[in-house]
Amino acid sequence: MEAVILSAGQGKRLLPHTRTLPKCLLPIGPDGRTVLDLQIETLVAADVRGPITVMVGFGAEHVERHVREALRVACDVRLVFNPLHGHSDNLVTAWFATQQVDGDFVLLNGDTIFEPAVLHRALGVRDASVVAAVNRKDAYDGDDMCIWTEDTRIVGVGKERREREPDGEAIGLYTARGRGVDVLREAFARAVAGPDGLRSWYPPVLGRLTGDDRVAVADISGLWWTEIDVPEDLDKARVEVGSRFANVPGEARRAEPAGS
Prior knowledge:
Elements: E1 2-7, H1 35-45, E2 52-56, H2 60-69, E3 77-81, H3 90-98, E4 105-109, E5 112-114, H4 116-123, E6 130-135, E7 146-150, E8 153-158, E9 168-176, H5 179-192, H6 203-206, E10 216-219, E11 225-227, H7 231-244, H8 248-254
Parallel strand pairs: 1-2, 1-4, 2-3, 6-10
Antiparallel strand pairs: 4-9, 5-11, 6-9, 7-8, 7-9
């Protein structure tokens, strides 16, 4: 299993924290560990063995130096630069990312942190080639990437409000296995080639898949995860992360390097 992390953006909603550093390098965990550190440590702890590809753009030189000099786990991390990062939204980065993988992979937003059990639950869904980790709650707001389902499969994804109440929120973690790898690659390629390709998010593309290619839901409600969009999220995450990730590096170091 490979992984791709979409970290090409600056994270402008987190300014001034991201004036010089991209969101993925903000210190958040014990001993100054960054968002990217925690994501990589969690992937390794969850037995991701293939290369971990980090899509970079804003502040790419800082990410390269951090991976080279400060990464605390032994794994195969590869950086791929998105030259359109300043002129596009994350659909383009996701499309670039799917060109980098050779097999089954995890697709992860660059601002989503989670416990290993979240990924294990997504991988536990075996009757679909593409799976979205979904959280369910009592009410949803305009920042939530909401999903709508029929017969356990996703038929719509977006932040807009609809007549029908959402069936959950996509947390920014997806898995693609078997046919699903090509399904995502082709779907993103078609969307990027469209009239709004440069200014679109990738999750709504997943809501337009049809038939057997429709995305399945892994309900991760009750498991720990967080998303960092605004300064308040950053403050909240720093409070929560300390105890949860205190022992992850040791677990990750005991795992074999990804790519072995």
